[in-house]
Amino acid sequence: MERPHNRADDHGTRGIGPRGGTAPSATDDGAPYRAAAAVRRVALFIVRTVRGEWHGIVVDPVRQLLRRGLSGLVLAFVAAFGVIFFHAVAQHPAGAVAVRLLGGVYADLPLWLALLRTPVSLYVPALDLPVWAGITQLFLAFALAELALGRARTLAVAYATTLAGTLTVRAMIALGPGWWGLGLPPEMGRVLDTGPSAAVVGLFTYLSVVRRAPVVFLLTGGSMVWESIAIPNLAGREHLIAVAAAIVLGLLHGHGRSLRRRVWSVLRIGSGPADAPVQGDGERTIAAPLTPYDEPSAAKLPQQRTLTGPSNSMDTPTGTP
């Protein structure tokens, strides 16, 4: 006799394979597809990021260059020729002294003298580094920044990042050794400032933050972090400070008008009531308070003829027969 069909047997042997092992479930079959989908999403994100960065860092500045011509590279040419000039002058003993007196910034100098030399220090290269590689980086940084940001903002970012490094190093030397590694010994005050390299790092970092370019940011800021770890010196610290200052300036990009408005409102609140308006000849006008009879709409009413006599509609005005 045949054995009757039992549903429990089918249920018990449903997950058993041909050799007694468990059969692959539906969840195991979907794992490779999910992994492939995740890889595809990551690849699309990388492609979009690189494409957007290419357009923001390269394509847009090239379009500006084609529209403006060589006039859009004035700062880049001035910076490159300035570095070449000071490097050529510094090859002679008397010229090296002149370059040091004009653009050599040290932390042990008086603050006013360091601030006076800082603009010239942007064109004084470090003599122990390959000058032509530095000139190429300097020209590229100033060219891209000038075409993408404009001359005024490029100069402001370059000077601000360089000045931030100079002033922060002076504060670190004032703290002295210790302070969890932030302080510096006094002999660091006789080490020459970084020169144009801090401006180059600052401009590249600012561009990467403003144009949302993570690859450029990793190549600039990441390389500076690696340099400061591999070779802990004064230049590495100044580069890190320049990167931090450029990040702050890049995050504040586009919010200058709102910040100025808030500062102006705070100043107005602190200065008391607003002054009276000033006329064109410099005299201040004082507005008299309105009385119940001073109605603004009364000036728009036409003048009425003066009538004499009793208030009767049949009377004639004065001077008529």
Task: Set out the fold topology.
Blueprint: H1 7-12, H2 26-68, H3 74-89, H4 93-103, H5 111-121, H6 131-149, H7 151-175, H8 196-210, H9 214-230, H10 234-251, H11 256-270
- Helix fraction, binned, reads 55-70%
Number of helices: 11
Number of strands: 0
- Give the biggest beta sheet: none
Query: How far apart, in Å, are the first and last alpha carbons?
Result: 147 Å
Question: How would you summarize this macromolecular structure in one to three sentences?
Answer:
The chain is mostly helical and 321 residues long. Helix 8 runs parallel beside helix 10 (234-251).
Task: Describe what this molecule looks like in 3D.
The protein is mainly alpha-helical and about 325 residues long. Residues about 10-20 and about 275-320 have low confidence and may be disordered. The protein is built from 11 helices and no strands. The termini are far apart.
Give keywords.
mainly alpha; 11 helices; 0% strand; globular; disordered C terminus; 321 residues
